[in-house]
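Worked problem 6 (solution included).
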Amino acid sequence: MRRRFDWEKRKAAAPNDLVIRSSLPRWIKTALRQSGIKRMSMLSVLSDEQLLEIPGIGRRSAALIRQELLHFFATHRQDRRGAGDQLNAETSAQPEDKA
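Solution. The predicted structure is:
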């Protein structure tokens, strides 16, 4: 019998947060989805022991998941910073109205 993780309902996450869109191997994505884990943010709160309790996830796949989480959150932070920097550049480049 497969164990499904119960999650509290949270605010909707970004669409790029989906495990299916990650670069994890297909067999890991399948094991995670069958356990009810669909988002990278869900994975980030699990300990290594909890990851190893998921059927089909062993030490190797847990290491791959941790590596993908580091890559995901590093990329996500850069995306947010880049958008903020672009917004700051646009607002500083606009001439001020002199009335």
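Discussion: The helical segments are 26-34, 40-44, 48-53, 59-93.
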